[in-house]
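Weekly structure sync, notes
Attendees: PL (lead), two postdocs, one rotation student
Agenda item 3: pending single-chain targets
PL asked that the sequence for the first pending target be pasted directly into the notes so everyone works from the same version. It is reproduced below exactly as submitted, 445 residues in total.
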Amino acid sequence: MDIQFNKINPNDGVISITLHEFDYKSAVAKQLKHYAQNVRLKGFRLGSVPEDLIKKMHGSSILAEELHKIAVASLKNYILQEHIPIFMDPILVTPLQEIDLKNQDTFTFSYEVGLIEERPIAFEPNISITEFEIDHVESKLVDEFLQGLQIVHGQVSHLEESAMDTMLYGTLVDSTGAVGLDIRISIMHIPEHLRQELIGRRVGQKVMLTEESFKDHFPALLGVSFSAFVAFKKYESAWPATFTIDKIVRVVPMAIEPTLFDLVLGKGVAHSESEFREAIAKIILFDKRAEARHAFYQDLQEALFKHNTVDLPEAFLKRWLMVNNPEATLEAVEDYYDAHKESLKWEILLSNIVRQNNLAVTTSDVVDETKRAYIDYAGHNGLQLEENDAAIHTGALSFLQGSEGNKYYSKLHNQLSRDRAINFIKEQISLVTETVSAGTFDARR
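Predicted structure, written out during the meeting:
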């Protein structure tokens, strides 16, 4: 086997893997034997089909499959052994028509890789970030959330034309057309001098709106989280925004009664309005704490980007998007890239921190975290398990080796790496912790 790495530029390269007959012959022979023992073919007993016949019928497909397996495994091992900092999965660039499975005995597979340019991460001493801890939820936020629930579960009548007491459902898109947010608008909550623009409208029509239009719309009324709307407003291109009307409705809000309690929480969870409000407050608190973490990460990202330049493998990423989304247009890929490039840069910066500070997550780390997650899950369901239980370890390994487990492994590995990088950053900057209410947190943003 021959492997060559051609670094085209700091952000792009090609890894070529050449497989000789010795590299794949035994694997193909093993697979042919497996087919012969298990294939059902008319005129032959199970396990008695001659291997020569199997080779004639399925030889090319078996060879292609084994070549692909060996090339992919060799690629992964090479990247790990050589510590090549790649971003996203490699792209196979070898044209299929160049491979002659019947007449060749040497095969070359070339993969394009997006490279992360290694740069030392600068932590300026004056970086100070506030990390908010949410300790309670005001009754006003509970009231607003309940209003949203009453609308969602209320009696709806669809209209052809909007009026003062109607709600409009649709998509709000920024001035570039690249960023969209599905929301609902209550015309009665639009400032009086701006309402007329929304009255007498029909489905499919578009309306230009400014940030002022939404000053009296709380998140539950909009039908989105506070953080989602804040994120939209932060785009420089947010306003003026275009709202496309998908449906026009008049809603009679549902009464705050046991039927609503059951619809929202499940049957019998809350038996009174006070219990219902208490449960809603817990839901809001959970969401607000998640928003606080997200806001902290955003502030951290903005602070580090002021002192660190991160270059994306732009050409590679756009090709990657096209390859993995064959139905996407070039325009759609460009829009997606523009909308997500900042988050992609953040992932690269975190990856550099992990590599440069020996914070790499191992398979053992992922297995241990999987075991802890399973033990926590069992505990919530009334089962008491010990972390050193051999069956737990075996079960975790078995799960991670399955198809669903592979996805879970990748997701958990990325999360653990991200957490290690974030914790490292916290140690390098001035970190201020502030305990506030949910409403105060919203006001600070």
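Discussion points:
- The chain is about 50% helix and 20% strand.
- Residues 350 and 418 are 6 Å apart (CA to CA).
Action: rotation student to compare against the earlier draft before next sync.
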